[in-house]
Structures are given as C-alpha cells and as structure tokens.
Amino acid sequence: MTRNDNFDIRRGRPGDAADIARLFLISSDGLAAYIWAQHAQNGEPVEEVGAARYARSGTAFSYENCLLATRDGATVGMIHAFEMPEPDGAGPEPDADPVLAPYAALEDPGSLYISGLAVLPGLRGQGVGGALLDRIEALAQKQGLPRLSLICFERNVQARDFYLRRGFSVTDRRPLVPHPSLHYTDGDALLMVRRVPGTEDAAPRRAD
C-alpha cells in the first residue's frame, strides 16, 4: 500500500468489485453501461453486472488489475489496466458489434492499456488521478512494457486535456458510432499513448 497525504493506494480485492463497477461507469462515459446491459438478465441493474464482472479472477477485467485510492477506508478513485495482447490474426468477426468496432480498431498491442481511470466528482483536483497514473507507470516499468495507452472520447475535453498534460499524445482516432447509452453523440474516439521511461524504446502506433 502507498500512502499520500490524504489518501492511500492499494491493489484491488474481491470485495471491491461493486466500488470498481461504480467508478468504471463514471470513467467509461456510457460505454460500460452499453456493454453490461447486453449481459443483464431479467432487468438486472448494470452496476450488478459490472460488479460480477470485476469479482472474477484470472481475466483482464478483474479486481486483480485494479488499483484503488481510499480515504478513511472509503474508495475515492480507481484505475484499471492490463497488458494489451498481440492480435491473433483472425481479424474482426463478421457480426462484430459496430458500436464497439472503433475501440477494437484503436488497440495498441504491447502497451499497458488503461481501460478506466475515475475519481469521485467531489474529490477531483486533489492529485488522486495523477497518483494512480504514477503507480500504473511504475507497474509498466516493472513489467518492461514500453508504453501506456488509453482510449478517450474527443468530446470529453476535461479528460483529454488531463492526459495531454500528463504527456500522452493522440496517435490514432476513429469516429464513434452513436448510441443512446454513450454520453457523446459525435466526434472521435482517440487512442492516446505515452512512452514509459526506463523501458526498451518501441514506437507506438501512428494514424494512417
């Protein structure tokens, strides 16, 4: 566990799954709600679907790949990241979901992919997100992964500018496919990448 002045950072635990799901709904700008709703049964709330998803182990979308920021025992922030695997060469499925297709096209294999970073609204601007990002960079260094990558909505200016200030750059983009679940109806999904100091130099993907 790492202690900061006002909060602690620790690895996720099975009992954190509900907190992780709530924060992931914040970070995904509606994308997680879209995905989880497809797995809901008999009117099951999407938060419960997400909690079950993150209670698993041995898979990318697991509490095992999450770091949590806590204050006085309460979860105030979360970051989820895993190594993006190399493509299997099979190409997209013929019936691939068109709403998700832009994000699949923006994957950066070989990077440590940050699929979600969220801080509770009342606690933003206090260094929580930056501290979580620092811990993920340290994890990438330890694993020898040369890049951090993430996907951000172009219209989410606050998040986009935060990552730009933290040294990320836009290396690729795809037009998003609108859906009522998504918070944005136009603009691009952006692949944002940052090199990890102290790792083998490897070029990130670039837009065609």
From TrEMBL:
CDD domains: NAT_SF. Residues 7-197 form the N-acetyltransferase domain. GO terms for molecular function: acyltransferase activity. It is an enzyme of class 2 (transferase). This is GNAT family N-acetyltransferase. Transmembrane segments: none annotated. Its EC number is 2.3.1.-. The keyword Acyltransferase applies. It comes from Psychromarinibacter halotolerans. SUPFAM superfamilies: Acyl-CoA N-acyltransferases (Nat) (SSF55729). PROSITE patterns: GNAT. The keyword Acyltransferase applies. InterPro entries: Acyl_CoA_acyltransferase, Bact_Acetyltransf, GNAT_dom. Keywords: Acyltransferase, Transferase.
